Amino acid sequence: MSNGKVKVVIAMLIFGTISIFVKNIDLATNQIAFYRGALGSLFLWGTLLVRKERIPMPLIKANAKFLLLSGFAVGMNWILLFEAYRYTTVSNATLSYYFQPIFMMLLAPIIFKESLTVKKLGYVLLAMLGMFLIIGVSQNNGTYNHPVGVGFGLAAALFYAIAIISNKKVTGLSGIQLTSLTLVIATVILIPYVALTSGFGLSRLGGTSILALLILGIIHTGVAYVLMFSGSQEIESQTFAVLSYIDPVTAIAVSSIFLQEDLSTLQVAGGMLILAAAFLNEYTGKREKAVSVGND
Description:
Blueprint: H1 3-16, H2 18-22, H3 29-50, H4 57-62, H5 64-87, H6 90-97, H7 100-111, H8 118-136, H9 146-169, H10 175-197, H11 207-232, H12 237-243, H13 246-257, H14 265-295
Helix pairs in contact: 1-11, 1-13, 3-5, 3-10, 3-11, 5-9, 5-10, 6-9, 6-13, 7-9, 7-14, 8-14, 12-14
């Protein structure tokens, strides 16, 4: 396995275990999102300093509009995903969150003027069927409110898609530079929101919460993003797309093994339909581009 593939695999395995640490932090979701961004920002900016890599101010000004939108979307994405973990199982939250490629597909005709083919509409319907299977068999109990949790997961996926679209509009910045700026903006945007709603909750932090928060901010944000971006630059996009499915598979395995969450046969089937729809959309999209280039 190449060095690039190893980096991406490790990053996806790290992302897949995020729920364990979020569940062990005794803070509100907006507070967790803020500290994750702050710690991740410090790590990434420290990485830039070690590498003696500067971000030219003209590039920041030229991309300011999309950087701000991306930062806002990332902050909202974190809050909504962590909220999903509180209302439903990690498995349901992860599978609903993996609707992000479907949202990308639906937004592409509006943002990038790309055509929405019958085949792609079929993938959307396939993913929707999978979501109905998951929600339909998830019964509410004293601990969970699954429809609400899945709703938060879908909203998180939408904001993730907005962040990706915004990043595609940014030019001239490397992956680490873009991520560093995005995390700083997300953190700054979250400061007034956290201050006016829940406060920063430092007095509530015990030893377990502090350790989990440090791991979340440094490992699951700083290290994982560095590995993901550097690895993605060393391998083909299609290979990266395939390896990215290690994330949801790991998250579901973690929820079953470590968090003792049950997943019914119908929910497994629904999850497979969502992942299949997302994978087929990416795979066929890459093939269509390859054929188009070959015919030019």
